[in-house]
Every structure is written in C-alpha cells, then in structure tokens.
C-alpha cells in the first residue's frame, strides 16, 4: 500500500500543475513621462513557462527600463502550453512643444533690393511661413517684397505649435542725384561777332553819302552795338577810296566817308566815345586792280574791333 502512495502523489502533482492557468501582472513606475525620460516596468508571473513583453522574451519575473518616444501600451503575456494570461501597462509620453526661430538679414532694404530669411526649428513636423508657404524645418530664402513685410513662421508638431516673426522694412530708394550743371558756355569771340554784325559799307564814286544799303547795314550794326553786353565795345571806322583823284583829295574823301558812318551810328544811339575814325585814302585797296569792279569795292568804310564787350555769353 505504501508503495502505491509514492507513485500516486507525484502523479497527482503533475496532473494538478498541468491544470493551473498561468498568471501575470505588469506595472509601470510612472504612467506619464516627458519624451526622453525613462520608466521602469515590473512584472511577476505564476505557472508560466514563457513570458514576453511586446513580443520580446523576458524572465518570468523582473524589471526593465524603457524610454518610449511616443505613448505606448506594453503587453505582457505569460504562456503555459496553450494557455496564456495577459497584463497591460500604458505609458503616456508627453511630446515637447516645437520651437522656431526666424530672422531676416538685413532688416532694412530699399525697394528692389533683397534680404535673406533664415529659420530653424525643433520637434516640428511641419513649418510654414506666411507669404511663402510650406518650407523645410530649417533653411533660408531670399526675399524682395515691394513694401514693409512681417514674416511669421509657424512650427507644428505632436506637442503643439510655435510661432516666430521677423519684420523686413522696405524703404523707397533715394531720388537720383540731380544732373550736373551744364558746363559754362565758352567765352564769346567778340571780335568775330563784331565782324559778322558790323559789316563793310560802300559808296558811289566821289561821294560820302550813305545809300539805302549802307544805312540798312549801319542800322543792323547799331542794334548789335547797343545791346547790353556790347555797350563797352570800342571800334574804329576806316574810310577808303579808289585810286582815282589825288592822294590829298582821297585822304579827305576817306575822312568824310568815315565820319558819315560815325554820325549815322551816333544818331542811332551809339556813344561817340566808342568810335574812332581814320582815313587811308587810296593807300589800302581791297582789290588792287584798275577797273570798275575793283574801284567799286575799294570805295568803302571798314569797321575794326579794338576792345571791350562782356565776354560772358548773354542769356536770351
């Protein structure tokens, strides 16, 4: 009888043990952590042949530290044959708020110039800049707005959102500098102007009378001589004759011709102090020939500039 008892007791233990369901418990030292922190998992089991936590084999009882990056539910499974038991521990991971920094260089430009936006972010899944749109989490962008603009960067992530702003001041460019003043006009060539305005007059044979053409030329000369810029001009009238007649007679005739022009100019307002006269008679012919054409050109008054006149060109 005693022999049978020794056989039955172990057999009963085997049968009893195989009939027990496995048991397991799982706890976390903290159920809420910030991302990057650690938490300790603890578990115990009974009647288990194997234990896994999230499919990872572990000891039947024990502890381990984990650092989940997101909210995680840990599942412990105790198995014995086809039987199993489960336990759960949830750890909530608090995601950090994103950060964003935004700057613009330079902060002030003239319209038409360019500036550079620079930004950087952390813990952001998306970044958007107003007026530009979605951008990389960190980067730079060249901008040239037509007017003062405030750019706002928005960083969004699991932990919320953050914003940063930068203002680019746009000013109008300064007006272009005024053009340089025109160079002063060159000084007058008064002698050349005199020769153009006061021209030779001619006389009939053996005459000192001024004909219509001579008077017209002298009126034009007086108008020019009486201009403000010409009123200090001093000039000489030279009387000339053709070769016919005696030298003495022609000297006197040349003098009358010079004075005839002088008196006419004085009557038109030209100051007598400005006029000198001289007679060369027949000694300085314009055309040294003896014919009617030459004689007609030699009976003349010539006008010679001496000095005076304003060298600054007048304003018209």
Summarize the structure.
By secondary structure, the chain is of the alpha+beta class. The protein has helices spanning about 1-20, 190-195, 210-225, 245-265, 290-300, and strands at about 25-30, 30-35, 40-45, 50-55, 55-60, 60-65, 70-80, 85-95, 100-105, 110, 115-120, 125-130, 135, 140-145, 150-155, 160-170, 200, 235-240, 275-280, 300-305. The longest helix is centred in the last third of the chain and has 21 residues, at about 245-265.
Low-confidence stretches: 4-17
Strand content: 35-45%
| Overall tally of domains | 3
Tell me about the biggest sheet? 5 strands, mixed
Instruction: Please state the CA-atom Rg, rounded to the nearest Å.
Output: 61 Å
Spell the H/E element sequence: HEEEEEEEEEEEEEEEEHEHEHEHE
Estimate the helix proportion, in percent. 10-25%
